[in-house]
Amino acid sequence: MGNSLSLVASIGVPVGVGSIIGISIAPEIKGWYKTLKKPSWNPPNWLFGPMWTVLYAAMGYAAHRVWQAGGGPLPLALYGIQLGLNFAWSPLFFKLKDLRLASIEITALVGMVAATIYEFSKVDTLSAQLLLPYLAWTSFAAALTINIYQNNPDEGRPAKKAVKEEVAGAKAALQDLQEAMATKARQAGEAAHGGASAATATAANAFLAQGGETQGSGVPEEVAEAAAARTAAARKED
């Protein structure tokens, strides 16, 4: 019973996680991936799903055999590392769209798969042989990734492009804010100046209405000056 459960887990983990990742990147495969320049030897999209399912099942079974044979920590540690690199490639390529980093990552994956096969061969020959198709397919995928990166250089650094766009947007927003603040300050100044002028005119009119022609006690100087100016203008008209 325990052996059966470990076998199911060994196969189920890579197949299950791989399937989830495949479902998550399906929109990018149908959309963004079609816009890339690809070589003539690029396989049809429908082939990737079945191929990876078979390869995940084979590597899971191989790892189970090594574990049963008491292979020790090194072979299984290498297997775990390469599996993590395998899972990380799709998000790097399809989600982050960082073709350069994806090319570097999958090259490292090929090396880790080769190292895993070498260590598996010391424990169980069949386990190592089960990983040979995986090594071949991963090597092919690495060549395809590098080719796509070379043919689509503008897609290689999306993070930097995003940062530049964010910085440009922030600068534009800051400039708009400064202009808005300057406009409000100017309008406030004009309103204050107009209010003061109106208040002065009102006070002058009140002063004249009371018959004042000279500065009186408690009358602001500017009000008296305005009143005097208006009186002088009225006399000239007469």
Automatic annotation (TrEMBL):
It is found in: Membrane. InterPro entries: TspO/MBR-related_sf (IPR038330), TspO_MBR (IPR004307). GO terms for biological process: tetrapyrrole metabolic process. The keyword Membrane applies. Belongs to the TspO/BZRP family. It comes from Chlorella ohadii. It holds the Pfam family TspO_MBR. GO terms for cellular component: mitochondrial outer membrane. This is Uncharacterized protein. Its main location: membrane. Residues 211-238 are annotated as: Disordered. Residues 160-187 form a coiled coil. Keywords: Coiled coil, Membrane, Transmembrane, Transmembrane helix. The chain crosses the membrane at residues 6-26, 46-64, 76-94, 101-118, 130-149. It comes from the Eukaryota. It is a multi-pass membrane protein. The lineage of its organism: Eukaryota, Viridiplantae, Chlorophyta, core chlorophytes, Trebouxiophyceae.
